[in-house]
Amino acid sequence: MPVTIPVIAVDGPSGVGKGLVTRWLAQRLPGWHRLDSGALYRILALAAHRRGIDLHDAPAVAALAPALDIRFAGTTEDDEGIWVDGQDWTHDVRRESTGALASMIAAALPVRAALLQRQRDFRQAPGLIADGRDMGTVVFPDAVLKVFMDASPQERAERRLKQLSAKGIQATLAPLCEEIRARDERDRSRSASPLKPADDAELLDTTGLSPEAVVSKVDLLLQRYRLV
Length: 228
Ligand code: DC
Prior knowledge:
Layout: E1 7-11, H1 18-28, E2 33-36, H2 37-50, H3 58-64, E3 70-73, E4 81-84, E5 87-88, H4 90-94, H5 96-106, H6 109-120, E6 128-132, H7 135-139, E7 145-150, H8 153-166, H9 173-189, E8 202-205, H10 211-224
Parallel strand pairs: 1-6, 1-7, 2-6, 7-8
Antiparallel strand pairs: 3-4, 4-5
Helix pairs in contact: 1-10, 2-3, 2-5, 3-6, 5-9, 8-9
The structure holds 2'-deoxycytidine-5'-monophosphate.
The site of 2'-deoxycytidine-5'-monophosphate has 14 residues, from helix 2, helix 5 and helix 9.
């Protein structure tokens, strides 16, 4: 019988603490791989934008996906380095403006289809921790554990502001909060893979929780699901 490589799916909107949870999981589960699926959407959007492709032209954007040489260079304390076609795109990919471009292309079915196999290719032994919007619903519906995270938009904007300023990226709260609301609305209301919990997902609302409290809840889930 073929052995199924386990996947832990961590889904939810931006700024909810998925990065914290997936980095912690990667330490808790030695050797497990990580997929930052949002980075793939960001990279594809940025690559299309830089080539002057109209981001509403979904087939043209999707056609770019197979050819891009994407490498995630070693996990650091913070985010991973991102290399595209031999160039360091780490900083540009993480910008808020790139997130907005990614959200635009992510609504289109041809784009999602083009990235589907690329995401599944990350499933390698001993296991995969996958971070995104539709990991538990579409990309890895057979994930052994599905966590769906949420938090209030205000709190997510505040966290995002802190993360950005720690990276030396300037932003202000009000437009960031507005941007987060608009992106949520797009992600939740699109017809292709809308942002929503899988029926069998564990819901984790992190509003008002410290990072320590969040990871201890996830640790309890690992124990309940006999993954540690
Ligand atoms: O998680 P992030 O902020 O890096 O994601 C950027 C955008 O990509 C987000 O607005 C929605 C989209 N995305 C998606 O549609 N599906 C995923 N699995 C991951 C990201």
